[in-house]
Specification:
This protein is mainly α. The protein is 79% helix and 0% strand. The longest helix has 27 residues.
């Protein structure tokens, strides 16, 4: 069952990536990011209100947001810092790079998660899993060669380093999620609500120095329907992902890889919508990544 939940998360993440590309195109990055997280928070806020005033009803419906200790708040705040840094880097990169380049690099995230799962959680990969992960990495390297034809030199483009940093931080957060869900016994909605709350706080602090004081930057911001759509789709994907993690048998290394099947939507559909170049050549490494994911599922 947890694998199906992981695939559901991948579906919503693929749609989330398309909306995110539309939201950041020729737009101010930080207010877009704040808008998406705020939309996710507002989606969860009614459940928090119901949980406070009608706790029994909230528990009966399965969307109860529990009271947690200050120590647990601290653990969630750490996750918010990690993901805020990851998103700032990712959104900046997405603004200046094609989605068909960004998404496959993000697909290397399972490799970092894979290594962490071995050393931190002692998950045991088999031969097919090793082959699957290295197929993903080799396919991402192939994308770098295709990217050069679009004027993107991976060694000299700072946005490439930004998306790599965002990928590493995102993988670290994925490993941390297993600790929060399985060790601290947090429910998905409780983790999501407080995570959004603290992330909004962090972003408001950042914008207080980088965006709010500057009138010319504020005037460049364009409100788009895709901004709240990003937040709603992300929270929906995270809910399925965290529900999968609640299963004690769920392996974070496999869930991380399953989530990367989102690239089928991002690369194929996104390439058509945004009319990006070299779509056919990108299908070759896309196939390699999908084969890698398939081998992991097969194993």
């Amino acid at each position: 069952m947890w694998m199906y939940l992981g695939l559901s998360a991948a579906l919503f993440l693929g749609l989330h990536n398309l909306c995110k590309k539309h939201a950041v195109k020729d737009n101010e990055i930080f207010p877009v990011l704040l808008g998406t997280i705020t939309a996710g928070f507002l989606l969860l806020l009614p459940f928090a209100i119901i949980s406070y005033f009608f706790p029994e009803y909230a528990k009966a419906t399965g969307f109860y947001i529990a009271h947690i200790s200050w120590q647990t708040h601290g653990f969630i705040f750490i996750k918010s810092i990690i993901m805020a840094c990851s998103w700032v880097l990712a959104y900046q990169a997405l603004k200046y790079l094609p989605i068909t380049i960004v998404t496959p690099i993000r697909s290397a995230g399972p490799f970092f998660t894979f290594i962490g799962a071995i050393f931190i959680y002692h998950e045991s990969p088999n031969l097919w899993q090793w082959i699957g992960f290295f197929l993903i990495i080799l396919s991402v390297l192939l994308y770098s060669r295709i990217g050069k034809k679009e004027g993107i030199v991976f060694k000299k483009n700072k946005w490439i380093f930004a998306i790599i940093g965002a990928t590493f931080l995102g993988a670290s957060s994925g490993l941390y999620d297993k600790f929060l869900i399985q060790n601290l016994k947090l429910t998905p909605q409780t983790l999501q609500f407080w995570f959004c709350f603290y992330t909004i706080f962090i972003l408001v602090v950042i914008l207080s120095f980088t965006w709010f004081p500057y009138k010319e930057k504020r005037q460049k911001f364009i409100w788009r329907w895709s901004i709240p759509a990003v937040g709603i789709l992300l929270q929906t994907a995270d809910y399925f992902y965290f529900k999968a993690l609640q299963n004690p048998e769920a392996l974070i290394m496999l869930l991380s890889a399953i989530k990367r099947s989102q690239i089928l939507i991002s690369v194929v559909v996104g390439g058509l919508i945004f009319k990006e170049k070299n779509k056919r050549k990108k299908l070759i490494p896309l196939f390699g990544i999908m084969l890698g994911v398939g081998l992991i599922l097969y194993s």
